[in-house]
Amino acid sequence: MKKPDLDKIMTNGRAMFLAYDQGLEHGPTKDFNDDNVDPNYIIEIAKKGKYNAIIFQKGIAEKYGKEIKDSKVPLIIKLNGKTNLREGEPRSEQICSVKEAVSLGAVAVGYTIYIGSDYEEDMMKEFAGIEEEAHMLGMPVITWVYPRGKGTQDKSDSELMAYAARVALEVGADIAKIKYDGSKKDLKWAVKSAGKTKVVIAGGTKANEGKFLKEIKDIISAGGAGIAVGRNVWQSEDPFELSKKIRKIILGK
Ligand code: FBP
């Protein structure tokens, strides 16, 4: 096993990732407008906003390979995904191999596990193979750990958030991507529960800018590493200015 090279996607243990897999997860109608439906717009935001990395599914990574390479923004490829059209217990299957991600220029890979779903063990098992293969190559692995499905009923948001962070540590992820429940005290406990696994928060649907920036301040003061967000940035009227503000909070410059 090689030590995963986190410096490729982090600055002094902090991270600003721009996520853009919503086209697969939600479809192009609800989330996108004339500007942000174009992956080139996202690449431009990532470049000008000096993000640590950009997160795409393999299709965009391949079709826009030249533009991504020219931007010099490190690439993270999400290895599993699903649409929101199918009903039932959440399940996200692997659709890209570590090998293919490497061939497309990825420096790290991502994978979602829905803890609490009937299919949790399938995702855990699939992730185990990915983690092993990526770590053999010294590639960092980011796990989206989203509590969802039957097993999460009757559990509190704070309990589930800490559990998500802890699962990421236990399964060998280098970075846990979790959804913030809005309580700074809970977030602190989640970060502590993740141990040496770094914690970044997702953004969710677009909030007012003040609220969004406050959440970023919370993750930093809770000892977390930063963000892996999409809609709050690329749905903003001025994603470039917003990115400067985010950068100041996370990286201090
Ligand atoms: P956002 O900041 O836009 O919420 O993106 C974070 C993210 O994890 C994406 O990577 C992913 O496409 C999306 O959220 C999934 O959201 P959900 O499963 O809640 O619909």
What is this entry, summarized?
By secondary structure, this protein is α/β, with parallel strands linked by helices. Helix content is 41%, strand content 17%.
Describe the structure.
- The protein has about 250 residues and is of the alpha/beta class.
- The chain has one domain (about 5-250): TIM Barrel.
- The protein is about 40% helix and about 15% strand.
- It is built from 11 helices and 10 strands.
- Helix 7 (about 155-170) runs parallel beside helix 8 (about 185-195).
- It is globular, with a radius of gyration of 17 Å.
- About 45% of the residues are buried.
- The model has no long low-confidence stretch (mean pLDDT about 95).
- Bound molecules: 1,6-di-O-phosphono-beta-D-fructofuranose (FBP).
